[in-house]
Design brief:
Elements: E1 2-9, E2 13-22, E3 25-35, H1 50-65, E4 72-77, H2 79-82, H3 87-98, E5 102-104, H4 107-119, E6 128-134, E7 139-145, E8 148-155, H5 159-166, H6 172-184, H7 188-191, E9 199-202, H8 204-213, E10 228-230, H9 231-242, H10 246-252, H11 263-277, E11 281-285, H12 289-297
Parallel strand pairs: 1-4, 4-5, 6-9, 9-11
Antiparallel strand pairs: 1-2, 2-3, 6-7, 7-8, 10-11
Helix pairs in contact: 4-12, 5-11, 6-11, 8-11, 9-11
């Protein structure tokens, strides 16, 4: 038996997955998140801000402490280190500090890993499966049959980057209009024809919104397996959340308080996607990129 750890450095959080591998079986020990977002993501020169570097460094070290008994540890970073001018340089600096390599993955690999992680958690079938992974800085669309990825695309829009583009605490309608316009200029429409079934949404905003709809006070991921969100219910929830102040949102998001300021933009991306591409319902997955890496590590 060997213990492995996966760290996914995102724009809002660091996700940390730990599992035991034994004779081809996987036993997940823990799946935790460490929020670190603080202040502006980029400085005036387009480099990672000092605040972000400090928060990322602190959260990464906390995640590594959870993996001290692991035989192998894999660390990846997504849009948070793809976009800044000094992103890859900082990945090297940070990797040297912790004596581990940090792989800054490209959008295609991110889509591949997320799709692989998600489809392992659903029943095998011959239907076309669609997945959109809505992160903090980007969103990856993946289309495949069974567990085989066939098409992918990526847009630099996520819960954090949408907040930066439109502004924090803006009306829901502005977030929807901005995102629907971006979707309209993308190749998503052609990739979603024919329409996949199921259409799966991945990411912290989707999971948090599903937990709110499920009336969770203490987060329970098991109850969200194959959870279905209906467009009408999501629209009503976002309209309700949009008029609340941050303190009230934090009370509702008792299990994920640091997400309070980006939950409406994150949800707006989901709703805009459903509006633009005519999905009345979508499934939620609590799995994602880290589970795809786990599949790779166990062969």
């Amino acid at each position: 038996m060997s213990a492995v750890g996966i760290i996914d450095i995102g724009t809002n959080t660091i996700l940390c997955l730990k599992a035991n591998l034994h004779n081809g079986t996987i036993d997940i020990i823990s799946d935790t998140r460490f929020h670190y977002r603080a202040g502006s993501r980029l400085d005036l020169m387009g480099n990672i801000s000092d605040e972000y570097k400090t928060g990322m460094r602190s959260a990464l070290n906390m995640a590594l402490r959870d993996l001290t008994d692991c035989d192998r540890v894999k660390i990846v970073a997504t849009e948070v280190l793809r976009k800044p001018k000094d992103g890859r340089t900082f990945a090297k600096i940070l990797g040297d500090e912790i004596s581990r390599e940090i792989e800054v993955i490209e959008p295609q690999r991110e889509a591949e890993l997320s799709f692989a992680g998600v489809v392992q958690g659903i029943s095998r079938n011959s239907h076309i499966t669609g997945m959109i992974d809505i992160g903090g800085g980007s969103s990856e669309l993946a289309i495949g049959t069974g567990n085989r990825l066939e098409h992918w695309s990526s847009l630099p829009i996520g819960a954090v980057s949408l907040s930066e583009a439109v502004g924090y605490e803006k009306p829901l309608a502005l977030y929807l209009a901005y995102t629907e316009n971006l979707f309209g200029k993308s190749d998503f429409q052609s990739l979603l024809d024919p329409s996949p079934s199921p259409m799966i949404i991945v990411g912290g905003s989707a999971v948090a919104l599903a937990a709110i709809i499920d009336d969770q006070v203490v987060f329970n991921s098991d109850r969200l397996a194959d959870y279905v969100i209906h467009k009408v219910i999501l629209s009503d929830l976002l309209n309700d959340l949009a008029v609340l102040d941050l303190n009230r949102r934090r009370q509702i998001l008792e299990f994920d308080k640091p997400r309070a300021d980006i939950i409406v933009p994150g949800g707006a991306i989901i709703l805009a996607f459903m509006n633009k591409f005519r999905f009345n319902e979508v499934k939620i997955s609590t799995r994602g990129l880290r589970h795809g890496i786990l599949q790779e590590m166990c062969g």
